[in-house]
């Protein structure tokens, strides 16, 4: 219990440090409002459209989906690693290792499938391909 | 098991009960937090520039103080007293919170890191049984902060930078965790003190020198994998794709100025040190080492990892974003699975 009180105390300190820096800065810093200063940076041009309406590569969704699968899988692996050595002496190597090997095998099969379908290969749009001068 | 820092403080103050625990915790946390901040203050504005300068045959800061070291103070005052320019159309609460999330979450990870002892005091805030899982969980909160910064800035470069940062963190988090927990197979516990204790045995003796059973020595392949994944996790070359100054200005930091910029920068450096602390604890025997007190060895190890990141930063070219996905999902992920299975098989065969 005292462990988690200490962790909570560090969480409190970890929030207080940035907040105190922000307060100090607020006391010190000048404010000189000027026309055009607040425009977002777009290589010196007047910003066009909203940044939240831009189209971006579908790849970001694909890797996020894959991540969810593998992240859940680490949740299952962590307890296994903790008990593994004791389990080997108690129930034998085969029964401790093979089920996990099978589990990982299924996962890797899934990764192989995703790999073959191009989920972990960067997707290039047709527009980019048409503008490409040479393939390297 | 030795007494933890909060208990030592509450004993010294002579206050018992929940009040004592809480007070000890807060004072201990303040001490640990300041310790980390001092490290980042030395690293960020001064030593990093000096290291870079040496790599690139330059001089680096040399005007203020001995070896230009007072640039730390000058830069802190300069950056904090800059005007805060709030860009048009930012998503207000998220834009303000993102730097805080980054800095705070990185700092929180240090709660369970054993930093060795000084004058007989064990510098470790807490030692819960889920220590290693806690560190990984807290360290990955940073991804949320990066998305917030990238999305809320109302800047196309920031948005792309945020997306890239998340894609990179997702691709390298699994190898990082899988390699990290491959040592749990040796240690049989997630508790940080147990992991350090498991590394204190002697592996073999070469003449008068005892080689300790550090997991980095037992399994150097895992150490190498972890260092690479950690580089990607903290976003340093060759994996500085989220910032990529030549492609997307400064990525998610583009629209931040004044104290918010300081916080983002601070968060990044605390993250590098947190990565170093995990490497030191899990692979390099924690604060173990001869003659000198533990905390000195701990510092030596985290600074060694810091130097390694700066070395890579100054000497390696950046990879492209499509290569990043390939290396993460095809290379490192398979290598970390192979590492886990082979480690488990070897430990299993030895244990039978």
UniProtKB/TrEMBL annotation, chain A:
Keyword set, alphabetical order: Membrane, Transmembrane, Transmembrane helix, Transport
Subcellular location: Membrane
Example GO molecular function: NADH dehydrogenase (ubiquinone) activity
Pfam families (alphabetical): Oxidored_q4 (PF00507)
Coiled-coil ranges per UniProt: none
Similarity comment text for this entry: Belongs to the complex I subunit 3 family.
First-listed, main subcellular location of the protein, grouped into a coarse class: membrane
Name of the protein described by the UniProt record: NADH dehydrogenase subunit A
Gene Ontology CC annotation, any one: NADH dehydrogenase complex
Transmembrane segments: 6-28, 60-84, 96-115
Source superkingdom: Archaea
TrEMBL record, chain B:
Record GO terms (molecular function): NADH dehydrogenase activity
InterPro entries for this protein: NADH_UbQ_OxRdtase_su1/FPO
Recorded superkingdom: Archaea
Organism: Halovenus aranensis
Location in or out of the cell: Membrane
Pfam assignment, any one: NADHdh
Alphabetical keyword list: Membrane, Transmembrane, Transmembrane helix
UniProt key word Lipoprotein: no
Classification of source organism: Archaea, Methanobacteriati, Methanobacteriota, Stenosarchaea group, Halobacteria
Segments traversing the membrane: 20-42, 101-125, 131-153, 174-193, 213-232, 262-285, 291-311, 332-351
UniProt-recorded name of the protein: NADH dehydrogenase subunit H
Biological-process GO terms, alphabetical: aerobic respiration
Membrane protein topology class: Multi-pass membrane protein
Coiled-coil stretches noted in the UniProt entry, renumbered to this chain: none
